[in-house]
Each structure stands twice: as C-alpha cells, then as structure tokens.
What we know:
The chain is an alpha/beta fold. Helices cover 37% and strands 25% of the residues. The chain has two domains: 309 residues, UDP-N-acetylmuramoyl-L-alanine:D-glutamate ligase (3-Layer(aba) Sandwich), CATH 3.40.1190; 153 residues, Rossmann fold (3-Layer(aba) Sandwich). Helix 1 packs across helix 7 and helix 7 packs antiparallel against helix 8. Homodimer. It holds the Pfam family PfkB.
Amino acid sequence: MIKYDKKPNILVIGDLMIDHYLWGKCDRISPEAPVQVIDIKKETTVLGGAGNVINNLLSLGSDVSVISVVGDDDTAKELKSMLDKEGAKSFLIEQKGRKTSKKSRIMASHSQVVRYDHESKNSISFDSEKRIFEKFQEIINRYDIILFSDYGKGVITKELSKKIIDYAKKYEKRVIVDPKGEDYSKYEGAYFLTPNKKEAQEASKIEIENDDTLKEALKKLKEQADLYYSIITLSDQGIALLKDDEVIIRPTVAREVFDVTGAGDTVLAALGFALSLNNSIEDALEFANLAAGVVVGKLGSATVSLDEIEEYKSSLNKSSIELHIKTVQDIEKISERLKKQNKKIVFTNGCFDILHKGHVSYLDVAKSFGDVLILGLNSDDSVKRLKGENRPINTQDDRAYIVSALECVDYVVIFDEDTPYELISKVQPDVLVKGADYEGKEVVGSDIALETKLVEFVDGKSTTKTIEKIKKVIK
C-alpha cells in the first residue's frame, strides 16, 4: 500500500458537467408514435466529467480545488452548489452565452432509453483562457499536483494547456493528463498522460498487437508530447509504463467487472493522489490498479476510498472467510463508509460458542432487518467472565471464522468488554438485534441504535443444552 503521511491538496482543471438521471418504468407504448412512455418515479444528479475525478479524490481523502469554465445559466448554479456540497473548492469562470454541460438520461428498469445533452462544445473564449491562467498563477503554490481532466468540451485548449504546463514546470509542479483527441502535442511537457489502448493507438497511429508494438506506441507518445513517463492503460491487462527504455506492466487486479464507466477518472485520481504523497511511480501504478479494480466492480460512475482499496488488496491475498473478520478500528471505518453509501446497518452480539441451528436462524432473521449485518463476538476472556471458567469450548479465532462463513453475516468483530456498548457506539447501527428473552429488559446500546428488534429463539436449541447432551453421551 502507498505511504499516506499527509493530506494532499490537488488541483483539477477540466470540463465539468452534471450527469442527470430520470428513473422510471414503462408499461405502454405511446399512441402518438411507436415510442415507450416512461412513468418517471425519481430524479437524481451527480457530478460528471472532471467532477468524477474530484469525487474520487475527495473519497480518497484529498483536499481538492477545481478550475473550469461554465455558462451564465441555472445549470452552472446547480453545479456550483453540488461542488460546495461535496467539499471541493471551485474557481468557476462564467462565460456569457456558453451552456454548462448537463447530460440527461431517461432510465427504465435500469436500462437507458435515451440521452439528451445540453452543452457547448466549442473552445472557451480568449478572455476565459486569460482568466483561468491568471487564477492558476495566483494559486499554484497551494497544490501538490495538477490534474487535467479533458473531456473535449473546450475548456482545455491547446494554448491554455501549454501555458499551464510550462508555468507549472517553473514551480516544479507535475501535471498529469487524461487526454482527449489525437493531437497529444497539446499536452507537451506534461509529467505523463493516461490514454487507454484505443486512444493510444489513434494518437500514435500504431496498432498495439504485442509487446513490441506496445513499446513502440509508448515511445511514440513520449516523443510526441515530450513526457517524463509514458503510460497506456490496458483495461483488463493492467497499466503499461515506459521507464528507462523498459516497459513495465502492472497487471490488473479486478476480480469481477460489472461496469467500466468512470474507470479512467478513477485511475487519474488514484495516480495523482499517490504521486502527490511522493510515492514511486511503480507504487502509484499498483495503487491505481487496485482502485480501478474496486470501481469496475460497482455499477455506474463510482468512487473509491482508501478503506475499500485496503480491503480489496487484502481480499486478493486472503480467503473470503477471513476477509469478513475485522478489528474494532476497521469496523469503525467500514461503518462510516457504509453510512455514506446509505446502507442500513444491523448489529447483534453474542458468544456463539458451539454453532447450532438456533444461532443460524437468529442471525438469518437479524440480517433481514437491513443491508449489512455486523456481529460483535465476545472474546475468550469476556466469555469466561460471563459463562464461567469452563467456557468457551471453542477459541475466539475459531468462533469468528465459523460465524463469518455464514452467508447472512457480513462482518465479525471481537470485543473484550463485558458488554458491547463501546463497540456499538463506534458502529452506530440503524438496527440493534437481541434475543426475545430481553423482552421487558434494557438492551445495551438501545440508546444508540435507531431501533431495537427482538428475535425469538428456536425452541430447544442452545449451546448449554448441546454441551449437556455431549456430556451424557460421554458418560
């Protein structure tokens, strides 16, 4: 994992837009024309374009600022409000008569029916270029690295790009670019670019078919744009780097791909984040690969956090069962992340010494109350204090491994106190679950959880009765 010894401050320059979604369902065809009639149920908006890079940087834990050009319209006001809400500092230049980019998608049963765009794609005016460069000169010393997110909507013109890169070099600030178009001389002097294979082929005019042509394309791009490093992202094959005339390929680490939307934005953000912390280029590439591996496992343009990357990296080296066992520190971070994702967290606790049908039934019902079930497991010392010197029968590691293997259990965390109150205060669950024998009694942590549920036990099933049965058989 990369070293993370400070909070970086990163500047993004590029094309901002709003991704607008109208969600609904279709039950009929229009009598006016052979088209679907969509009954809209929900409307959502997210930052798009360079905004997706910004969201990824914020999710990773960076301070972020953005310079861009918008129109003098309501969409620009909405965009500024969204940036403020996310916590990004924005320097937006208003250009009269320009349309702020907004892409609207009509979705029926999670399938896109149609998209319509409201935007200007022509290059920004000379005055807007001048104002961007002046602002850049004013604030450059605040930032560790500069990222260009070029979506080809006219903000990053060839003249502006060269002026910013040349000025950044004077202050020893690196500029990393997610490029657009075929003329990479536009980004001359950048630290490196992040084209994908298709983009690299179009810009270099070299068909990448094997290791030799890959190296040839990397060299050509390096020469074209006078880059410090040359990089090509290779989708499921990873990321290729030309360093000291040697091609280094960091292979992909994606387990399962659902959607590649926004993966390029995540790679740019992850590389910028890692390098702003003075990590090596090789470590930055590994980090970006892990980040991309997380994002392509999600649906739609997505962001990634350090916790998710750490967890994902661990999952590549551990069994899936062990991955569910977390420390108290881990579970606090995971709970915070789950809340940001609007997941409903369910918490329960217990000894779960000798697993039986009653336990499994109880946990299965508990999971039904929300999206994620976190199980607090009493440590061996805690069980001894509660149950006596002869308990537990199974060690805490064995018990944790067994219960974490259950499909209904998402995370297991061992706690050493007599009650789980401290753990519950860190998790802040939406639902707290206990056995029905707590009816009329105070449930520890009920003052923290939003609601408390009591679950009936399966008659005749308990660890104590199982132990008694074993003793009779031995006798």
